[in-house]
Amino acid sequence: MQEKVNRITSLIEKFLEEKLSVEEERELKEWLAEAGHNDSFFQQITNKEVLREKMKIYASTDSEAIWQKTLQKIDSAAVDGAKLVSLYPEKKVFRIPFGKIAAAASIILLISAGTWYYFGQSTENKTAKTDTNETGIKHHIVPGSNKATLTLHDGSTIALNSVQNESQIDQGHTQITKIDGRLIYNKKLDSDRSQSEQDLYNIVTTPRGGEYQITLPDGSKVWLNAASSLRFPIAFAGNERIVELTGEAYFEVNHQDQPATKDVAAQKGKVAKTPFIVKINTPAGSKNEVEVLGTHFNVMAYTEEGTIKTTLIEGKVKVTSGNNFQTIKPGEQARLKEGNISIQNVDAEDVIGWTTGFIPVGGPDIEYTMRQIERWYDVNIVYEGKKPEGSFEGKLPRAASIENIIKLLNANNIKARLNEKDRTIIVTS
Questions:
Q1: pLDDT tier, 24 (very low <50, low <70, confident <90, very high otherwise)
Q2: Which among 351, 386, 405 is the end of a domain?
Q3: Domain check: are 331 and 423 in the same one?
Q4: 197 and 331 co-located in one domain
Q5: Is residue 140 part of a domain?
Q6: What is the pLDDT of residues 154-197, one digit of tens each?
Q7: Which residues cross the membrane (predicted)?
Q8: What would the DSSP string read from start to end of 227-266?
Q9: How far apart are CA 176 and CA 169, in angstroms?
C-alpha cells in the first residue's frame, strides 16, 4: 500500500511540473476516476496561488526535519496502512504551469496538509464504513475543509460549498467569483462604482470544521479560520478601509493610496496611505481595533480564548482598545485582555500554522491545543479528572484523521480517547 502512496505522490508532482508521460497521464486519470470524495484537497494541492503562499511561509523552515519529527510520534502502522482516496472522477486532467515553484511540490505534498494522514487508514476506514452500515449511525468525524456561508447585503445567504467552481455573482458594480475555495471581489469592467456601494456589506461565515479565503475589493487577502466571520463592504471608498472580525483570520493587506485631495496635494508630492482597520467583535461590545497600512498579520479573537491576540508577520500594526494602544513589530504578539495590552515575542510560524496545514500548538497549555482541535474537527472536548499540564510538542497536521490526532496526543502523554457517536474527545488525567 505504501508503494502505491509513493507512486501517486510522484504522479502528482509530475502533473504539477508538466512532466507526465502519456502512460503516466493515463495512470493518473485512472486513479482519479476510482472515487470522488476529496475535491477540496486536490484543488488546493494543485492551486498555483496556494502553493506560492505555502512556499513563502516555509522558505526559512526545515520542513523535512519537522515532518520526520512528527512521523516519529506515530505508530508505523498508521502510515504503512495508508489508503489512497481518488479525486475528480471522470474529469479531465488539466496541466497547470508552475515554473519555479514546481520544484517544491514534493515538500508541499508531504507537509502542507499532512498528505499521508489525509489518505487515512484502509483498515480503519473499512471498519468505520461497516459500523455505520450496521448501526445506521452517521457520526464519522473528518478534518475541516473549505466551507462557508456568504450573506449578501439584502440578507440572502449562499452555502459556498454547494456553489459550482468559477460561479459569479453580481452586486452593483462588483463581481464576486468563487474559485477553488476562495471568493474574489472585483470591480466589473467598464463600470463606475457608486459611492453608496461602500454601505453595502457582505458577511462570510465559517462553521466549526470550515475555512475560507477571501480577496477583498482592494486586493487584500484574508484567510478565515473555523467558527469565524468577516463583515466588509463590497467596495472601499473614502479615507479608511474597515472590516469587522469575529473569530480568527490571517490578513495580507495591500497598500492603497488615499484619493487625491487639496490637503494631499499640499504635502509636496507625498501621498497618504489609506489605513486598513480590523474591528474586533466581542460579547462585551468594547472598542477593539487593529490598524495597518499594508502588512501581514493574524488576529485570534475567539470568545472562549479570553484574550484577543494579534500577531505580526510583516510590516507594522497598531492595536487599540479604548484609549490604550500599542504598536508591534514582526514576531511580536499583542495580547488584549480586559482593556489591557501586553506584548510578547512568539513563534509566528506556529501561530499562523493553521494557514499552512498545521494545528497551532504553541499556546500556554494543553487546553489551548484542544480548543484548536475542537474547532477544526467540530468535536467537543471533555476532561475527566485533573486537566493535563504542560504543552504539546511537535506538529499536528490539519488533514490528519481524528484517529491519528488521538494517537499523536497519546504519544505526547495526553491520555485521550474518542467517542465518535457523540463527537467527543475524552481527556483523562
A1: confident
A2: 351
A3: no
A4: yes
A5: no
A6: 999 999 988 888 899 888 889 999 998 899 999 876 555 555 66
A7: 101-119
A8: SEEEEEESS--TT-EEEEEEEEEEEEPPP-BPPP-HHHHT
A9: 5
Half-sphere exposure of 335 (CA within 13 A, CB side): 10
Assessment of whether the complete model's pTM goes beyond 0.85? no
Q: How far from 76 is each of 113, 236, 404, CA to CA, in Å?
A: 19, 52, 11
Can you tell me whether residue 137 is helix, strand or coil? coil
With 0-12 / 13-18 / 19 or more C-beta atoms within 10 angstroms meaning exposed / middle / buried, residue 395 is buried
Grid cell listed for 167: 460561479
- Reading the block at residue 154, the C-alpha cell is 439584502
Distance, in Å, from the CA atom of 87 to the CA atom of 380, rounded to the nearest integer, reads 30
Residue 426 has pLDDT above 70, yes or no: yes
The pLDDT tens digits of the residues spanning 287-300 come to 789 999 779 999 99
Residues 6 or more apart in contact with residue 417 via CB below 8 angstroms:
406, 425, 426, 428
What is the identity of the amino acid at 108? I
Which residues partner with 222 through β-bridges? 214, 251
